[in-house]
Structures are given as structure tokens and as C-alpha cells.
From TrEMBL:
Organism: Cloacibacillus evryensis
Name of the molecule in the record: Phage tail protein
């Protein structure tokens, strides 16, 4: 999904949250506290919200279906902010709420919360 804002189309995100952690193994020791062993960095996780509004040139139903298909297929996508490549990510979780429907039965807006996780290719 490409986020953009123009005279004909507005597709932007909000509430971006980023989570990262270190990975540790915990080794049990009889009669003492466990010992931690640093394994390395964990995968980056990012969540954000997207408002898909038909009044701003977007087909909310079509857009949410594309996101669902990407999630269900495990499609890997490149996350880019401006001209900076952040890395490869997959959609791990997608939830959506929708507004009223128009005369044709299509939702006038859908707000989606998207969770993505960093994707590292094996051996890299």
C-alpha cells in the first residue's frame, strides 16, 4: 500500500508505534537465580492506523481486501518513509471497523489498525 496525499486521493496513516526488544535465553540454575544469555536483537514491530474514506478518493472495501490478501499470503513488502528504506515487513495482524454504508451497500469509510513485523530472509 502506498500512502499519499494529492488533490484526488488521500491515503495516509496515523498513530505509528514502534516496538523493539532484545532476545535473551534464560538458563535455570539449581538453588540460584536463573542466568540470562544475550542472543541478539529481536525483530522490529510497528503498528499504525489507516483511515480509508471514500470521500477522499479511496475505495475502502477494495483497499481492506488488498491488505487482507497480503496478510493471508504472507506477502513481504518494503517499508519506506520518504526516500529512506526501513526494511522488509509482513502484516501479522489486521483489524478494521467501518462506518455507514452508501446506497450501493459499500462502506463510506473503514479504519484499519495494521501490525507489521520485520522480515529477515534466512541466512541474511
Amino acid at each position: 500500500m502506498v500512502f499519499e496525499a494529492s488533490a484526488d486521493l488521500v491515503r495516509t496513516f496515523s498513530d505509528l508505534q514502534q516496538k523493539s526488544a532484545a532476545r535473551y535465553a534464560e538458563h535455570e540454575v539449581i538453588g540460584k537465580k536463573p542466568v540470562l544469555e544475550f542472543l541478539g536483537p529481536g525483530l522490529e514491530e510497528i503498528s499504525f492506523k489507516v483511515q480509508l474514506l471514500s470521500s477522499l478518493g479511496v475505495d475502502p472495501d477494495k483497499e481492506i481486501k488488498v491488505l487482507q490478501e497480503m496478510r493471508d499470503a504472507g506477502e513481504v513488502g518494503q517499508l519506506i518513509f520518504g526516500e529512506t528504506k526501513i526494511g522488509k515487513f509482513v502484516i501479522t495482524d489486521l483489524s478494521a471497523s467501518e462506518g455507514p454504508r452508501d446506497k450501493q451497500g459499500a462502506p463510506t469509510w473503514i479504519e484499519a489498525e495494521i501490525n507489521i513485523k520485520e522480515y529477515i530472509e534466512h541466512g541474511k
